[in-house]
Amino acid sequence: MAGDRAKPCELDQEKYDADDNVKIICLGDSAVGKSKLVERFLMDGFQPQQLSTYALTLYKHTATVDGKTVLVDFWDTAGQERFQSMHASYYHKAHACIMVFDVQRKITYKNLSTWYTELREFRPEIPCIVVANKIDADIKMTQKSFNFARKFSLPLYFVSAADGTNVVKLFSDAIRLAVSYKQNSRDFMDEVLQELENISLEQEEEDMLDREQRGRIESPPPS
Ligand SMILES: Nc1nc2c(ncn2[C@@H]2O[C@H](COP(=O)(O)OP(=O)(O)OP(=O)(O)O)[C@@H](O)[C@H]2O)c(=O)[nH]1
Ligand SMILES: [Mg+2]
Questions:
Q1: Are strands 20-27 and 68-77 parallel, antiparallel or unpaired?
Q2: Segment Disordered: which positions (predicted)?
């Protein structure tokens, strides 16, 4: 899989040309490194300053998976929202989840179960990757077995946004999983939503035709 850096002016055109588009959400406590990981992947850079995400940041990216162009939306939110439930729209139609904890702060690992429970309420089936971030700060952590991932049969990646270890692999795999989920999923909610969208589109078309017809009848005949 090859990734191209997103160029805003090209994205609209690419949207029309793209073979597919997927949404990937990031979850995890505040300051575990969610934003830094996305930035490392998209910009291949790391600015160490701490700026907590306010509400929501949406990153757009174009990737190539098996020769097909895929538009990827990365949704990154503020981890401190753990104390309230995340708004349902954050999960809406997500195709994969990257769930991050900080190997230096045990509490962020413990809180994974809260994040995971909420994720599964909204998206019972989507692929989810568990991410142990900041391994540059304590490389010994890569020897530890983190049972949470094993318990739920989730893949676990040891990464560092600071030095880039495994970041491209993490995001490339997440994109692949999202695409394959979208292509193969028989998620009932998705099907229902799709049906509803089709119905409202048909209704809009009918309304438009009605209005056009009425317009013709109501307008005075040409003299
Ligand atoms: N040593 C080290 N520090 C990191 C790494 N990734 C992030 N940080 C630091 O951790 C802090 C938080 O990073 P963010 O990416 O802002 O964390 P976040 O999860 O987006 O936080 P919220 O937006 O508050 O939810 C920053 O000071 C980063 O410099 C890493 O891989 N290694
Ligand atoms: Mg952030």
A1: parallel
A2: 203-223
Ligand 2 geometric centre to CA of 90 (Å): 15
The CATH number of the domain where 47 resides is what?
Answer: 3.40.50.300
Structural domain count of the chain: 1
- Give dist(CA 221, CA 144) in Å, integer: 83
Best residue among 25, 26, 32, 36 to mutate for probing ligand 1, ranked by most atoms within 8 Å of CB: 36
Any domain includes 196: no
Beta bridge partner(s), residue 131: 100, 157
Range of the domain at 43: 2-185
Find out whether the beta carbon of 36 lies less than 6 Å from any atom of ligand 1. Answer: yes
Inside any domain, residue 68? yes
**Is any atom of ligand 1 closer than 6 Å to the C-beta of 53?**
yes
116-165 confidence digits (pLDDT tens):
999 999 999 999 999 999 999 999 999 998 999 999 999 999 999 999 99
